[in-house]
Amino acid sequence: MDKHCLCVFLILMFFPAAAASTGPSPSSCNPNAKEQRSIRLSFKFEDIGRLWKIIDELKSGADPAVEKWNSLVSGPGYESLIKEEIPEDVLLEAIRTAFLPSKQIQQKLWRDEGKSALHLVDHFLALDSKRREVTDLLLQLNQEQGKLSQQAIELACDYFSLQASEGAPHFSVAFAAFQKDARGYRSSIVMDPLFALEAGNNLVYWLAHETHHILRHSVAVATTPDGESAKNKSLVWVLRQLQSEGIADQIDKPHTFFGEGYLAHSKFAKFFRNEVVKGPTRIAQLNDLIQEIKVCQLECDAIDERIRKVAVMAGHPLGFFMADAIEKTLGRDALIVDIGDPSQFLASYNRAALKSAQKLPIFSESSLEYVSRLFTVGSPMISK
Ligand SMILES: [Zn+2]
Fold first, then answer.
1. Distance 63 CA to ligand 1 centre (A)
2. Interval between CA 102 and ligand 1 midpoint (Å)
3. How far is 288 from 282, CA to CA, in rounded Å?
């Protein structure tokens, strides 16, 4: 998650005329409905069990046999992490550097140099220092997974339409240490055990957020040839992020980053909330950049970079701002009816902005037209 104010009161200040949260709408998916019986989160603990054994061997001064390392990197969590974002050699070297006595000099050197892989080393050290608590937690989660799964799917379904969820795949939640975060990949969730430990009863919100990503992925529309072009690469990425994270963040952020949320006082949450306040400014900036990229013929890379910079924190707070405006002004159905189509998300935001009493900025017709050219209508994407 990859990722995390105004508090809730400020959000309400933006949209005072807004209706109260509408709750699950008639078109929301229902985990008890026949169609959804096949959706279940299945918890996987193999990764962490193999990691403990490797850590113990490294501490004794021995480098585990190749088969043991292979077993670790082919586990449900680490296989996904390696495939999507952490190179295998970086991961394994960080584990060795954290625990192998002969690597302690290297670890000191990395600290002196401020090497980026150090965050992994420190995370594994922190994990090992909480081994008892983590082990107890995973035992507890194993017993409670049926209940947690049901709650997480219910929360995710509050922001997902019934029709859209048909055919959603089975998927697993693999507990694998990497950083205090979680990931929702195409067919699995990876949850960091330390992150889960700190979340306590809030874990269900993070599970629901990542579950939502997996459900949405099955209906995400494909890009057109225009959307595939190099000059639109960043814009397409940002637009997808705004919708997918903006809606998924409605599930967890009000409970974790705002008000009395357990992370509300963290720097990350404060930054997130400050960015939500800047939503109107960011909308105007993004609109200008869409106009620039629309007419750009040559050397468009600089605009590309600025587009990514406008979507601070990978688009989470701006997406949150837009989704919140849509839901509070037009209702939840309007927010989720076009889930998977980023161009419709912008069009819905415009309708909400025009209806709101706050004179929120809108995207120009020209920008909406350009964005609509980047995505196909109603045909699910094949690859992200
Ligand atoms: Zn997310």
1. 36
2. 38
3. 10
How far does residue 331's CA lie from ligand 1's centre (Å)? 22
Measure the CA–CA gap between 55 and 124, rounded to whole angstroms: 9
Gap between the Cα atoms of 311 and 217, Å rounded? 20
Average pLDDT over every residue of 165-192: 84
Q: What phi and psi, each to the nearest 5 degrees, are found at residue 111? A: -65, -45
pLDDT digits (tens, 9 = 90+) for 283-316: 999 999 999 999 988 888 889 889 999 999 999 9
Q: What is the pLDDT of residues 197-222, one digit of tens each?
A: 999 999 999 999 999 998 888 889 99
Residue 379: is its pLDDT beyond 90? no
Distance (angstroms) between ligand 1 centre and the Cα of 2 equals: 6
